[in-house]
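Take a look at this chain, tokens included, and explain the fold to me:
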Amino acid sequence: MEWQRRVPPIRGLMALRAVSEAGTFTGAARYLGWNQPNVSKHLQALETALDAKLLHREHSGNKLTEAGERVLEHATAITDSYAALVRELERMRAAETGRLRIAASLTIGDHWLPQVLMQFGEMHPHIAVESRVLYGREGLRQAAQGLADVALVEGDPGESGLTAQKVGEDMLMVACGQDHPWAAKGSLTLEEFTQGRYILRERGSGTRDTLDHYLEEANLPPMQPELEVGSNHAILQMLKNGEHLTVLSSLTLQDAQHSGFLVLLPVRGLNLKRAFWAVRAPQARSLPAADTFIDFLRNNPPNQELTPATGPTETAQPT
């Protein structure tokens, strides 16, 4: 770039544009919030800097010279660009401040959100986050009613009418205790999967709704669990007696598998991967802090370090 030694006369460019749009110096002063002598002073300074007559003052009005017409084109572009710069910087400042209300489903809220909030708070200390963990799809309802700015939900948010962005994923996994008769199988066939004795989450939970949806898509009958329990922790404890299987999120199963009492059993021919979605409330669609939070989620997906049991034909083939 060829740098000019003279300071760009931005106020003169503003004065020229304002006079052109208002038609008079009085109107231009009103547009700019200046007094009329200042409009004249900055316009004269612009003419001096450019060594060109830009405006003819006539009784019938002010008329731009040929040079003035050309300068006005650049003045419009420069002042528009500066206004856009100011708006962008204001948005950047807003993206690092404010208050954000988050509603999360149980699996996300218990197993991913705590780590996210700790890291997010360190990187964006001026955004105050208020989070709550809710049952099933309650977060969607709260977002729709304006009670939460962003809802984090498992599986397809469906026809909620809200703006949704994918921010991560997990996988539903079949698991059993190490004393279960199938613990050494390494994997299950579809027939075995449908014939097992299960303890599952209750209907209406995000995990159960996702499981029922996948079974329907795979033309498999709905599962008939022997027990339905509203607590992931309680289900994991009940698996220790070795009699039942469960289907839970890979995030829920991490700690239990690492502790050594849990075995994972992939199902051959069935893909149980699901997406996590950030759903914006209508009032949060232009909320800069929400943009910052959702971008952070997408750059910090859930950590899933699971090792399915080794054994014959352990690789699940997606449907």
